[in-house]
Structures are given as C-alpha cells and as structure tokens.
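thought: user wants a sequence for this fold. calling inverse folding tool.
action: design(structure=
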C-alpha cells in the first residue's frame, strides 16, 4: 500500500497533488462524447441534474453556470430526493446524472425513474462501464484515474472541469457562444493544470499552519454567493468528513436568517468569492461576521478588494470566473486534510463512510 501512495503519507494528499495531471487528462479527453452529451442536454426542454454528496456540489455548479450562460431552466436535485422532482418532469426533459463511481444507488434510482418517464439521460462518471454509464443514453467521462481516499478530491475538480466544458458546449448550441468564443475558452481552460499546481505550491504551507487553529475549533461556517456557493458547500463537507469538525456551507446572504446566532469571538468563517459582481454584497456579510467577533478567512481572486477586511486570505492567482471555482477548492481540500492530520485521524478512511454507497 505504501508503494501505491508514491511517497505521500495518505492517498488523499497524493490525490490532491495529482489534480494538475488529471485535469489535464480530462481536458485532453474532451471529444465526441462531450459533443453528443451537450447536444442531448441542449435538445431537452428542461435540464435536470442529479447526484449525491460531492458530485451534487459539482452538479449544482453545472446548474448555476448553465443557467447563467444559456438562460435555460436547469434544475439540480439531490438524487435520494428524486421522488419529489419526478412530478414536475415530462418525457421531453433530459437528465444529467453525475457520479464519480457510477455506482451510487441513489443516483441510479433517479436515473431509472427519469428513464421510465421517457427522458433521455446523459451521465458523467469516472469509471468506464459503470452501471450509471451503461444505463444512460450518452456516457461522458472524466479522466481522474482511480480515487482511493474516501473523500472526493481529484474527482471533484475533474467533474467541475468536465461540467464547465459541457455548459459551454450547450451555450454554443443555444447561440450564446460562437465557435471563436468556444475556442478561446478552451484555451483558457488549458491554463488550469499550471494554475492548480501554483495554488498547491503557494498554499499547502498555509493550510498546514491554519489547520492548527481549525483543529482546536468545534464548528465553522463556509459562506459564499453565486458560483462560489457549491465550493463553499464542498469545503464544509471536506472538513466535516475527514477532520470531524462540524462545518456548514451556506449562502452568505442566508447566514443572518439563523446561522449567525452561533457566531461568537473566534468562530471561524470561511468566505469564498468568485463573481466580481457579488463582491460588495459578500463584503457586507464579512462585516456582519466580524462585528460578532468571527475569525474570517477568505478564498479570493487576485485583485479582490475583500482582502483588506479579512483576518486571513488566500489569493488565487486568477481573475477568470470560469476557472476560479476549480482553483478555490484546492486550499480548502488542503485545509481539511491537514486538520485531520493535526487531529491524528486517518483522512483516507473517515468513520462511518464508504467510498461508494450502494444502499438506498
Ligand atoms: C465525498 O467526499 C463523499 N465521499 C461522498 O459525498 C460522495 O461524493 C457521494 O457518495 C457520491 O459518490 P459518487 O460520486 O460516486 O456517486
């Protein structure tokens, strides 16, 4: 087993470090399956997208991005809740099922229910020949390679990369992006592997240091707005599942409708900022938390004005809103990993969790 870890103490850290390479592999694999998947999604009346856990966060991102780029109705839902969503679906709709393993029973049940209704199904998985890929009308794959750590890391960033590409292809079909626009965005996406590498190099030490503070806390909030929200939700899930620190991801604007009641001196609140147009509102939320004594940490783009108001900041070396979400989860993965290590728990095998959930 230690040979398979290639010198890393845990699979989770090895897989975090593999991200530049597997994102590159995923981009290199953007081919005909993506074109056909995008065509099928574009042809549907309403696009539904479903998944569980981390894959749900990626799906939520896809829904937000596709709606923003295309003006289309895109409805994300947690796969175990499919019975509530099937009522509003009809045979002209299309479902995108996202699952790294391609075996999650909740997502498979949602897929079968939509198929039974007559909907076309596109899948995005990491495993060729998995049941969800086999049962879909069009299978699309990320190329993350096998993920051993129970916590999803490289499968999440490759999902985001793949889903960004699908969203752009749908936008092209809807006339919202011309061939030139697609080409230049693909060029921008190609910058991702180097940028991911840069973020890991720059902020691994930061995450190690910050983990000492977080390991001593019993709770944390992860807040964001817009396209950053799925990243905040995923950051919170990572901390909770591997480091056993209670963490909640919330839309920043919603925090004053309840969650803020828990905030007192030193309570850690992580802010994730993606869209420049939402920065002013996010700044208001930072001020609200600071006024209650919160310890504020920001994952912010280069040039962001939020930096001056935060106790701690991680500045991502990009301002490109298409790339930022993928880059911004990296320091949060590292923070969760090092907090687990600091607490002396095994991040590869969190208690009570299985890599693939095959019971409903
Ligand atoms: C993520 O860290 C978890 N292990 C879990 O939420 C996971 O994403 C979920 O069970 C879905 O798995 P899938 O992508 O294989 O369908």
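)
observation: tool returned 360 residues.
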């Amino acid at each position: 087993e230690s040979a398979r870890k290639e010198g890393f103490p845990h699979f989770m850290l090895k897989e975090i470090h593999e991200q530049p390479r597997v994102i590159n592999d995923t981009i290199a694999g953007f081919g005909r399956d993506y074109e056909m998947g995008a065509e099928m999604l574009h042809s549907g009346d309403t696009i539904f997208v479903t998944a569980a856990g981390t894959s749900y966060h990626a799906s939520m991102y896809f829904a937000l991005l596709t709606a923003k780029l295309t003006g289309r109705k895109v409805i994300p839902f947690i796969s175990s809740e499919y019975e509530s969503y099937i009522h509003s679906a009809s045979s002209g709709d299309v479902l995108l099922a996202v699952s790294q393993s391609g075996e999650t029973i909740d997502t498979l049940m949602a897929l079968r229910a939509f198929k039974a209704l007559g909907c076309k199904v596109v899948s995005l998985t990491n495993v060729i020949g998995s049941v969800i890929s086999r049962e879909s009308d069009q299978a699309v794959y990320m190329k993350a390679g096998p993920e051993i750590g129970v916590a999803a890391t490289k499968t999440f960033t490759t999902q985001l990369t793949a889903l960004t590409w699908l969203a752009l292809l749908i936008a092209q079909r809807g006339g919202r992006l011309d061939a030139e626009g697609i080409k230049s965005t693909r060029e921008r996406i190609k910058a991702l592997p180097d940028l991911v590498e840069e973020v890991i190099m720059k902020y691994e030490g930061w995450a190690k240091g910050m983990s000492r503070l977080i390991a001593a806390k019993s709770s944390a909030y992860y807040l964001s707005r817009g396209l950053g929200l799925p990243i905040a939700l995923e950051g919170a899930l990572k901390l909770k599942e591997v480091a056993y620190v209670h963490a909640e991801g919330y839309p920043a604007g919603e925090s004053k409708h309840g969650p803020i009641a828990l905030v007192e001196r030193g309570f850690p609140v992580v802010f994730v900022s993606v869209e420049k147009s939402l920065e002013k509102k996010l700044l208001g939320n930072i001020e609200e938390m600071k006024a209650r004594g919160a310890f504020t940490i920001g994952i912010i783009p280069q040039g962001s004005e939020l930096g001056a108001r935060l106790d701690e900041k991680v500045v991502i070396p990009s301002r490109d809103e298409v790339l930022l979400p993928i880059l911004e989860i990296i320091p949060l993965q590292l923070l969760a990993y090092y907090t687990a290590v600091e607490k002396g728990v095994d991040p590869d095998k969190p208690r009570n969790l299985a890599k693939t959930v095959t019971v409903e």
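thought: summarizing for user.
answer: Here is the designed sequence. The longest strand covers residues 295-301.
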